[in-house]
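Structural biology now treats backbone shape like a language. To illustrate, our science desk offers a sequence and the tokens encoding its fold:
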Amino acid sequence: MTRGVIFDVKRYSIHDGPGIRTTVFLKGCPLACWWCHNPESQSMFSEVVYRQERCIGCGACEKACPRGAISLTQRGYTADPDRCGGCGKCASVCPSGARELVGRSVTVMEAVKEIEKDQLFFDESGGGVTFSGGEPLAQPDFLVEALAECKKREIHTAVDTTGHAQPDIIMGVARHADLFLYDIKHMDSAKHRLYTGVGNELILENLKRLASAGSAINVRIPVIPGINDDETNIRSTGEFLASLPGVRDVNILPYHGIAETKYRRFEMDYRLGGLAAPDEKDMKRISKMLGLHGLRVTIGG
């Protein structure tokens, strides 16, 4: 049975597709968006997070590490990244929760059993399971098998994706997914590359492929002030989406900076520190502009 690496399972979600849903977060993403809410998702591998403020200095982690990667430094019991294997043994013995394993390997059936626990809520609300991340298409074998198993159980399936994957992968997933929640971040490829690390050509072409194949698609646009909220980009986005057969539903999602603390926890730089969220007036302006292209626009999840 194929295995995958997941870092969270969120139950009773109402913002990741129709009805009440269980969202399974997979690790690994080819993008590195400046505003990413889940920086712990970007690596494909399990990682250990260290919170120095929780550390009581007992040294249990150092003793438990099979690779001798942990030692006492001025910043507490830190791990040498070149020696750490991400096994999580240090986290399992930490009495204060200063160390936490992010990402665990599971089989498809282990994941499906977790999802099945909420099937009553799916049936009553018209919900289901959403595979998110990271980028779920980065683990295509696990994703396809999990989707197929859910379909056998008549569980509605959605895939929350950046669309950055080879065409054969995304079209293979499309055979098993009931809905795509598809991110569009910027229409200018050079700016897309600057703010996410990749160009947008493959993303836009894959969206065209899905639309032409008749896949159900809900486009999601994160609104990042000063980056993608200008009239030129919004107009270009509306024109592109209106040209796609069957694509009419669009969610615009206002930026917020609540993930900034996560970046500090992972010792990562947060490039948008201090950026204010778009106000209600800005969101309504963008909604109106997109609506002029015949799109059904909702604000927020």
Observations:
- The chain has a mean pLDDT of 95.
